[in-house]
Amino acid sequence: MKIKKHALIYVCLAASIAGLVLIYIAAISIQAAPMPIAEINFDMVGRSVKTAGFISYRSNHPSGHIFLTITDGDDSIIQVPLFAGFVSSFERDNRQHATTDELRRGALIEVEGLVGEYRGQLQIVPRKPDDLKILYD
Amino acid sequence: MLLETFLFIFLGVAIGIFAGLCPGIHINTTIPLLLSLSIFIQDPISIAVLIISVSVTEMFIDQVPAIFIGMPDADTALCVLPGHRLLFEGRGYEAIKLTVVGGLGALLLSLVFIAVAADAFNFLYELSRPYIHFVIIGVVVFMILSEKVPRKIAYAALIISLSGLLGILTLNSSIVRQQNVLFPVLTGLFGLSSMIISFSESSVIPEQGTNNKLKISKKDMMKAIALASFAGIMVGFLPAVGISEAAVMTQYLGGSGSTSRGFLMTTAGINVANDAFSLISLYLVGNPRSGASVAIQQVVGEPTFFETVFLIGIILFTSGIAAVLTLFLGKKIPKFLARVNYRLLTSVVMCFIVSLVFIITGFYGLLILFASTSVGLLCAFLEIRRSHCMGILLIQTILFFTGLNPLVISILNI
Q1: ipTM of the predicted structure?
Q2: Into how many domains does chain A fold?
Q3: Are residues A38 and A17 in the same domain?
């Protein structure tokens, strides 16, 4: 009985690790779908997308968050909240040689992240520094 | 107006019973449907009444499938094991009764707490926010060390690490839509893994006893209700701390976990107290703290003092109805379960759950279910507390509040 229980423990441990590895492979293999702001809708909440737009509004929160609104130049807009943890990671990450000071009104940015809904408005939440690129300011 | 109010309450109760008994349906799943009814309902307060009635009823009824069949959602995950334990001792009705008493007691006490400390909430919210991750780190360390024996301490660390990694991979990627991802994760960790063990060990549910007296001392009962009221409010205003995290904290820090009965009362009470506070926080701090209160804010805006008092009345009234209905179902369902072949029923429910996971979350949902069930089973075979599986949310919360989440995601490149 004891051997059987030990065997079950090893089987479960192996299955847990195999499951995690497969989920990891799935997670890295799924690419965000590139699309214009106008095509992002509420049906896409929880999905990962990549889009580009001009910053039309920026506000800084005392806790270190930065809230951006980006537009495609027409009527379509979407919110891009940059939470404090992301902001400090973006500042530390020097691959882009950019800082959040460059996220000025009028700057063209490319953002990738999960589509979310906050207070009835759509938002894209970038998760890692690579998810936000300043194309030009 | 009065007739209309009762109409919406009873409609809400009916929807709440359906949502509570059906696995995979949470109040947040029903909200889009409820909001769509606003086209036909002129008075926004009537919609708020409907949302509150669904939310409160679902919260009480949710305990029935969690305890009797082992089907949890995010808020009842930790009730599955102690409830199941009592069911197999022939005291399934007592388990339901404990959740009802815990829910009602915590609701009343939390309203008193809120009335007394209303002015302090804004201050406490701002004060606690920068330090919340230290509290959660402390809880995780305490959870691991509370296993006492070195071998079990290592096992606990292993389970928290595995479930934490599962949380990082699933909650930060888009392999499954974020609003559905907790369904396969929690079903695997707490539901399906428990059912597999029940399936292998028991073929029948023992005859349920006729003595329905609560086997918990008045002192433990009061302690559980007080902890639930306090923790329910904490969940309401502490960012990112959910029902299950609060239940784990009270289990370890407050000692309510010393008995499964006290833990059942506390967890059910946190749910109800949190729901009441989430609604009142709309008035107190102008900040919705749950899916239901976000929906209410959308239709009502920031409620006035009198509207808030009216809605609290609705919560109390609906809680009474939901409590009676939960007790009714709690009495009928175990008798039904005792007559059926439990092994057959468990296999039917397992097939149903796996199918539901596939329908809602697709192939990747099944993959997540496989991994989370394996971690849940591993935890059970290692004979350590199942609450270590809550590492799935605790680790993610710590990473978010320490600002390390972007770094970890970068390293993993997900």
Answers
A1: 0.80
A2: 2
A3: no
